[in-house]
Write a structure and sequence with these properties.
- The longest helix is centred in the C-terminal third of the chain and has 19 residues.
- About 35% of the residues lie in helices and about 30% in strands.
- The radius of gyration is 22 Å and the shape is globular.
- α4 packs parallel to α5.
- The model has no long low-confidence stretch (mean pLDDT about 95).
- The chain has two domains: about 140 residues, 3-Layer(aba) Sandwich (Rossmann fold), CATH 3.40.50.720; about 180 residues, Dihydrodipicolinate Reductase, domain 2, CATH 3.30.360.10.
- Strands 14-13-12-11-7-10-9-8-15 form a nine-stranded mixed beta sheet.
- By secondary structure, it is α/β, with parallel strands linked by helices.
- It is built from ten helices and 15 strands.
């Protein structure tokens, strides 16, 4: 079964999606669409078999089009996705899913009523590195999770329509959501605007769960260096995930700390002993396949099998709820928000 696909948005991320769908044997790239003539003509020359359109309605009126991929600014996601679903098309939306949780909920309900696939391009959960981390967590190799600490900073790219949280946090929130597998109970965030008034270019977000697990995130457009690093600590082992590393993106550390109580005697209570365990460090072999290859394959398989994807609308909704809560906390001076 070949699924015909149309991609809307040929600017920054759209060409990568177009390329992967064009290379997938289970897909037929039928349409490319962008209101910017320069972006559209560049893509159209590269993929002459696809029909080019400036008007989104041309795609939706094509009865032979099965699915629409939306790679446009977040403010347009809800309207484009809603129209596609109403036209009976399956939909893949670029991150973040929508500009609000209410919009996400409406799209999920619409897709379910129409029996259509709705998926969000949370690219990082399809990388070999994150899938290997998920495997380690699910197998119990790390033990009980203690903390998730992530830094995603660089110099630019400054956005004018969204702040650094809405730009960068969807990556790390989706990774955390996928790896941890449970939802946080409260969130706190602080941020500051140094370049564009009202648009935070630096932010810190902290999440708490029902137990002692804590997650911390640092996002920054105003850093002299580019860092993409995540630390995940378990009671048995710890992982350092460095996405900048060309080959050794994951290191697993057989390190930990054990608390040994001295006993029930009150006079001896202060003598609590802490023992440190230092073992081997190893670098697991990772699947080097481009993550977008798996994103596109998962979307097509979800349509064929009529099943939810690993990053379906509900996963997108969970991330959008965190983004909304982070913005509310920043706006309220760093107040804790119950989730």
């Amino acid at each position: 079964m070949t699924i015909s696909v149309g991609v809307v948005g040929c600017g920054y991320w759209g060409p990568n999606l177009i390329r992967n769908f064009a290379e997938n044997e289970g897909a037929a790239l039928r349409w490319v669409c962008d209101k910017d003539a320069r972006h559209l003509s560049k893509v159209a020359r590269r993929y002459p078999a696809a029909r080019a359109a400036h008007d989104y309605h041309e795609l939706l009126s094509d009865p032979r089009l099965d699915a629409v991929v939306i790679a446009t600014p977040v403010a347009t996601h809800y309207d484009f996705a809603r129209r596609a679903l109403e036209a009976g098309k399956h939909v893949l939306v670029e991150k973040p899913f929508t500009a609000s949780a209410r919009e996400a909920e409406e799209l999920i309900a619409l897709a379910e009523r129409r029996g259509l696939t709705l998926m969000v391009d949370h690219t990082f959960i399809y990388t070999g590195a994150v899938r290997k981390i998920k495997e380690a967590v699910d197998s119990g190799d790390l033990g009980d999770l203690l903390y998730f600490d992530s830094v995603r900073v660089n110099l630019g790219l400054f956005q004018r329509d969204i702040n650094v949280v809405w730009d960068l946090a969807p990556h790390d929130f989706s990774i955390m959501d996928y790896v941890v597998g449970r939802e946080p109970t409260a969130l706190l965030a602080t941020g500051s605007s140094h370049i564009e008034p009202g648009i935070e270019n630096i932010a810190y977000v902290q999440l708490r769960f029902g137990d002692s697990l804590i997650a911390n995130f640092h996002f920054n457009w105003l850093s002299p260096v580019k860092i993409r690093r995540t630390l995940i600590a378990g009671s048995r082992r710890m992982i350092v995930y460095d996405d900048i590393e060309p080959t050794e993106k994951i290191r697993v550390y057989d390190k930990g700390v054990t608390r040994n109580d001295a006993g029930a005697d009150e006079e001896e209570a202060y003598k609590t002993l802490v023992s440190y365990r230092t073992g081997d460090v190893w670098v697991p072999q990772l699947d080097p396949t481009e993550a977008l290859h798996y994103v596109c394959a998962e979307f097509l398989d979800s349509i064929r099998d009529a099943r939810p994807s690993a990053s379906d609308g509900r996963a997108g909704l969970r991330v959008v709820r965190l983004l909304e809560a982070a913005q509310a906390s920043i706006n309220d001076g760093g107040r804790w928000i119950k989730l």
